[in-house]
User: Fold these one by one.
Assistant:
Number 1:
Amino acid sequence: MTTTPHHRTRHPPHTTLAYLILLLSQHIAAFLLLPLVIASALLTLIWIGLPFVILTGTLLRTLANSQRHTLTHLTHQPLTPSYRPIPHHGINRRASTLITDPATWKDLLWLISAPLSLLILAIPPTLATHALYQATTALTPNPEPIYDLTTPHTLTARLLLITLAAALLYLAHLLTRPTLTLYTRLNHLLLTSTAKARLTARVQHLATSRANTIDTQAAEIRRIERDLHDGAQARLVALGMHLGMAEQIVTQDPHTARTMLTEARETTRHALTELRDLVRGIHPPVLVERGLHGAVHALALTHQLPVTVTVHLDGRPADPVESAAYFATAELLTNAAKHAHATHARVHINHGNNRLVITVTDNGHGGATTTPASGLAGIERRIDAFDGTMNITSPPGGPTIITLEIPCALSSQKTLPSSGTA
Amino acid sequence: MRVVIAEDLALLRDGLIRLLQAHDCTVVAAVDNGPELHAALTHHRPDVAVVDVRLPPTFTDEGLQAAIDARTQVPGLPILVLSQHVEQLYARELLSDDHGGVGYLLKDRVFDIGQFIESIRRVAEGGTAMDPAVISQLLASQDQSGPLADLTPREREVLGEMAEGRSNPAIAQRLYITDKAVSKHINNIFTKLDLAPSTDDSRRVLAVLAYLNGTDTPT
């Protein structure tokens, strides 16, 4: 995993304050969750608590994640959770996944430590409040007894009190940064995932994506076999038959033989057309000849929608990435025309931060989602094999913006010498 | 007719040589890779070259690049490009220099020897020979709206035939109509598409192709 160098830019005080208030409210919310956690733990003893476990567990994750998010913004240090995925079905399975996940217990620790966190944060404001209290008492003409102890009547007492207040205020100021740092460090420590958890999650992800890749490839090979068997192979048999028959009768009946030869020629043409379509589906020749740049331009030229293409690549991605990127783009454009009823689409491809980024935008009616059986889920699965990600923004009414990111390096080879296309 | 052939598969290269020699052509060079093709084209300056898109050493679009390069050095050098697949992108690049003498056909078209030889002759004479697959793609991608929608089915047929590069008599023969009818349809097409009429056959075809490619109007 790569860690991007983070630049410690300090936020201006008001931004830090805003983040702090956000963190505090998240913490207080987490604290409120604690009784629910205890209740569900108790209820689990008599089984009926399981749905509560799922509910509180999910809530806990959400809260912890929102705090991670805020902390990431505040400290510029990435905090990515590594939870085990919760299964979609089965109360027992979901509950047991939640309970046996070490990350849940770590979150729980964070939850219980909430009072400590709040206490740490409370130091500077408490000091400041005392200073304020002392200062106002010292400056009041007829003061109340301070801390119910003495009443500062003399000037010396008053001056002493003001000095004390000033000292406290200064201390509060001095302690603000350190307590804040302590607070963020503590929470960072509690919310960060352990190396083991990260590795476990990674292994799990790799196992899933490998299984998906194998399935996809097997299905693809079956399709190719079927297409060859029912298509080109069958046509070649017919071709051979026509030629054989023509050979037999060519001396007795040249006219019929001629008709048969014409038919043989037609059969060859059909076989070629089928093979051509098959090849296009396996790996489009234009992709071999012109790379992603040329292939996407060629795709745009023959697409039923007007498509604007911009490509900024200084080289070529590896063949498998290029192919996956091409087919994903083609499928997204087809979706734009077929499902979203768009009248225009845009494809933007560039490379940065060691990632190939493809953005496909259409002006259709939006509402695109990844249901398990949808084409989008298929695309996601296929680019997942390269650790790629898909991001969908598709509000009802449109527009739809789909961004694919695939980690990859570019070969130094220049894409192409000529590409003066629209 | 002096011909240069570029095809890396020996079987197909020999087939093409035999086919062309049987039709009064002299094959001055038959090469199997891009650099040699480039040398042969600029050295022999043939009446026509028959070139495969994909050639060694890179097995990308070596042949097409050599053809386009040679045509920048020798404008209008007649070249017929053959390929296992046709791409509008390539058609557009071949046509972009606005000189005639260009052909772009699927290899399958060799089967119909009569038509294939006719295409070669047309390209050699400075005309064009575009594959029906390219033309139908072009027509389909322009189909949505616009002036093309105003054409009658017959006019569309004539437009397609013309875009492939055929002369008026050839169109008349293929569609079983008179030369006069063809001229009338073509006049209508040019009026509807708002193109300047031209008496020169190949100029006219190039104008139509430019129109279909959308290269004469900003898209």
Number 2:
Amino acid sequence: MNDDDDFLAEAFRRQLGGTVTVEAIRAIEGGASCVEVWRDLDASGFVDAMLPEAAGGANLDLAQAFPLVQAAGEFCIPVPFAETMIARAILAAHGASIPSGVPIVLAAPSPTIPGARLVHHALIASSGVPTLVVATGRGDDVFGTGGATAIDPGDVLATLPGDTDTVMLAAAAVASGLMAGAMARVLEMSLRHAGERQQFGRSLGKFQAIQQQLAVLAEQVLSTQVAARNAFAGSAFDPVRVAAAKCRANEAAGLVCNIAHAIHGAIGVTAEFDLQLYTRRIKQWQLAFGSESYWGARLGRARIAAICDTTADFLRLHLSAGVA
Amino acid sequence: MFIAGQLGNLPAHIRARTWAGFDADFSRAMAERGWIGLTIPREYGGAGLDAFARFVLVEELLAAGAPVAAHWIGDRQSAPLILHYGTEEQRRSFLPRICNGELFFCIGMSEPNSGSDLASVRTRAERVEGGWKLNGQKIWTTYAHKSHYMIALVRTSGTSEDRQSGLSQFLVDLSLPGVTVRPIMIGTGDTDFNEVFFEDVSLPDDALVGVEGNGWKQVNAELAFERSGPERIYSSLVLLDLWAKLLGPEPEPGDAARLGRLVARLAPLREMSIAMTALLARGASPITEAALFKDMGTEIEQQIPSEIADAVAMRPELAADPELLRTLAYLMQFNHVFSLRGGTREILRGMIARGLGLR
């Protein structure tokens, strides 16, 4: 990450600190309209950050946009911000017009589609072609976050070049980035709680058993962040990079949530405590857009198909961020 | 090409030893190509290349399963230590000989009563007329019996109660009178390990490396090199690649997923190793990062043989490929060591906790 990325992500975090409060998240989960939060986000311009400058954007590439996705996860944004940012970038890249002022979900095949109940537009793969449609969420919101089990497509607004994989890759990459951000916040909350909560006359963080658990938590978060960042590289989402990222994020998800909740104890799952806002979403993204076995099988087949003598060669050629 | 040529038809179960495989001739052939001491300046006999060039080379060697143990310690940590902390005379004396494959080094850290509690070492060097007198014992010293020098962490003042202060590092010529090296045989019959005894060993004045009493800090800098390299993720790679090859072009979904999940674990770790290479090259000492990396890296190194054992034996009616079986069995009998060598999991997690501000 360079200094510009830091600067942009920090500005975005300041913006989110003002608009995406935990009160707003709870209100939206409780059925309140997300229009106000969305309007503020849209007006901030960050959701257009990947559009060309002529279209009012900052022309960010995937790598530059990654810190925004991660920040969105850290703040548990209750509307599909990152999804819309990526959807708008895909639409703009193909010269399609962007529906003004509205959020868009990435509705790739998935048992649950985060945010689908909160929006009226979706990018789907229809007959194998990426298509922007008017959409209505259908089925249960099983994580209580505004998701749906499917969408009913309405009018077709645009069809784009690409294949069935285009939306899947974007959706899984975004989910990985959001998971990385949410996990970083969960680590921060767990460290804070371990420092504050006293048992047996001292803070939890002083117990070696807890320290070892927090070390594992930190490891899982760090490797997920590295893997997710690696999915945001180049000019379009690459199947191998996305597979590695979603696979890693999914494998980490269970461990991260288990340790964070173990450290918090019962208070962590209560409605009034913030931890569950994050961990429920981590679980939602874990289930969405392909499991570790789905992406693992794709990655494994890519490894076997690659003309590489060793897995080290494969990592260097297909999964490296640069230098070596 | 050179590596493949040197390895010839070395079977996978031998190549699986990678940096535990000792072959002096291989190391000398590497030296002839200028491949030892890649990052050491040319004036000291090195190649004067950057840390990334070494990363690329080391990764190739490990992935191919080259027997690099003979020059491994000297190349990875002794030469950088001498370059950084040594006197000009020490640099001129030792570095060219490490780079040309003449001197092999071993690590003198653990003692019978100082395992994870390294600061409690009791081996002692006393100042005497014209030098130092060394007494004590080191243990679990890999390839001491085939090395020329040990860099030993010993006490030069105070007692083991003084913990991190009063420790210093010495270059110990293992051919000196009073040095006894005794191999330790492990359950598999291998004798890579040794006990090393020092009985009134006379060391010259210039055997001291760096500053007297600064040994703890120096050893920790050395450990950052020891814990951050690709050898902490690739110890089971020869097995993984042999298994992947045997899966053929159309693997079953379960096998493909198993392979992919392991690759997905390795990918971010490799990125971390590269990032630490950059930090080390800038003179930083990423101790916490190296602990995080090594803890996760050795976990995947240990998991690869377990996963492949599961994959092979989930179809008990099928005969396993004999070479796959030999390679798997070697690693299954050795992989528990991966999280011990270079600092145990529990110690590393304690260091991470310190890095997180908990200690």
